[in-house]
Amino acid sequence: MLDVDVLREKGKNAMFVFRIAGPAVSFAVSASLYAQVAPQPTIPEQVDPRSIVQPATAIHEQPPQILPTAVPAVSIGMNFEGADLNDSGFRPPDTMGAIGPAHFVELINGTYAVYDRNSGTLVQMTSLDQFWTNAGATPQGNFSFDPRVVYDASTSRWFACAVDAGATTFSGILVAVSVSSNPTLGWTGFRIDADTDNQQWADFPTMGIDADALYVSANMFATGGGSFQLNFWVFPKADLVAGSIANMTAIEGLSINNVGFALQPVVDLDGSGLPAPILADFNTPAGVAVRSDVVGPLNSAGVTPGPLVGFVPFSSPPDADQPGPKQNINTGGNRLGSNVVLQGGFMWAVQSVNSGGRSAIRWLRIDPNTNTVVEEGVLSDLSLAFYYPSIAVNDFGNIVIGCSGSGAAQFVSAYAFAGQYDGVSTLFTTPILLRAGVSDYLLLDSSNRNRWGDYSATTLDPNNPRHFWTIQEFVAGADFWSTQITEIIFPAVACSPADLTTQGAGVGDPGFGVPDGLITAADINFYVNAWVTGSLAIADLTTQGAGVGDPLFGVPDGLITAADINFYVNMWVQGCP
Questions:
Q1: Range of the structural domain that residue 515 is part of
Q2: Do 125 and 196 sit in the same domain of this protein?
């Protein structure tokens, strides 16, 4: 987010977990309540890395494994350092990345980097502006900024967005798609006029995706005679993959009083399409968010403002403490800065809030059918502040929230929380240290804020749904930020129905139907055949209609439904037992 200057800005005590489950309380709130704080742009600022003391070799920290019994004991897989202030030249970096089949892509202010996921080796790096130029969408103005990236398993493509020409009348939206699942083989990009009447400029773009489309939104600040508004773009995925934006829809002039601030179109992991949910902060101190929808058809989509969603009120998070006399770290406010995830029929979201005078993480589980918060909680600590969170959730109710954290005795570090949703309620671990900060930090922007963030990213591994990857920011040396890329692994759950056959045996062979301790294509073929022919002894695995995480999932009910085969395929994919 923008703010142009000379420098491109952009003891472990017990954790308190506050949770509310059950029907949400109804709030009678005026639609003009958003007047709590005037929206502020936050353009990144350029930094001359030569003026910064270079860090000593950083030391990797092993994460403590202090886990409640209700959450599976996670382990750390790959854990390596990404780009830093020298590579980027910006403050803050707007920490962003995603995992794919063979690579991790980091896309931050000033830098595009691709790493081999199995070794952490850097295989490609350019500036962010060069990334867009190579894709065919050359940025205008001073620089591009506020990038986002996601890997879409359904198309085997990467999608990215950013904005450029901040605080000008020719501000633009940048969108790109990779030409294959290998991000190093090239991208196809497009630059779109952010505001057709040139009265506003785009800041803080957000991005969502579902079975039908890629969705991008931006906060639009006045360049002179205009007023603040929000714009929204809908790109059919099939068009983008084919190298076209012919059926793109631009929706301009959305009111903050109707749709809220910093719209987050969902990252839909359930594979559904239109209507596509959007969630935004409306007024957290008054206890309300707002849910809207993208409605079709795709080539002439619109945004329909929806109802307010009530939750526990919290004030904006204070700046976060750090050791020493330097100014505290700016925590960015209440907005929903990272992806809102739709998984298992629920929207999952995180934001920073003020809990006990420290910045803490509030998580939300929202029923999109009723627009109610069915469960929420706060992750906090007696000695640490947590900020710029991001969340990912898989089919099995495993959850990871990544964030930054610091305190009077802890330099700004990379953290994560592991969680488990069991179909009724959700529990989280105490904070897991991913990479410890090694020094204090002070890089003030033109508004005298000690900038950090402005967001982070946590994504599911397309190769294994029980593996999560998070990219977070930490202090690698005095006044010097770096990013850390970490794989967090939930254990596979033993589930004997997945191993049904002797390896290589085929239908009719003597050994077919005899488990051999190996899971092969023969197992799933055997199960599918049993499902098709109605062989209840093997094919009936679930209570009718139950989904992953439901209490009765995995309990036979005498009926063979799609839930049975979904259950079996999930077990096969994750390698049970």
A1: 496-574
A2: yes
Is the separation of the CB atoms in 507 and 526 below 8 Å? yes
Q: 477 Cβ partners below 8 Å, 6+ apart?
A: 52, 53, 54, 55, 56, 58, 438, 439
Host H or E run for residue 222: strand 213-222
Q: Is 192 helix (H, G, I), strand (E, B) or coil?
A: strand
Tens of pLDDT, residues 338-358: 999 999 999 999 999 999 999
Flag whether 186 is in a domain: yes
- Of 293, 295, 352, 341, the closest CA to residue 318 belongs to 352
The pLDDT of residue 30 is: 33
Q: Is there a single domain that holds both residue 502 and residue 403?
A: no
Per residue in 282-308, pLDDT tens?
999 999 999 999 999 999 999 999 899
The identity of residue 425, as a single letter, is S
Q: Would you give the distance in Å from CA 301 to the centre of its chain?
A: 24
Beta bridge pairs of residue 219: 203, 230
Same domain? 433 vs 560: no
Name the domain boundary from 435, 456, 489: 489
pLDDT tens sequence across 509-545: 556 566 666 667 677 777 777 777 766 566 676 665 5
Same domain? 529 vs 409:
no
Q: Is 62 exposed, middle or buried (0-12, 13-18, 19+ CB in 10 A)?
A: exposed
Distance CA 388, CA 456 (A): 6
As separate numbers, helices (DSSP H) first and strands (DSSP E) second, the chain gives: 7, 33
Q: Is residue 8 part of a domain?
A: no
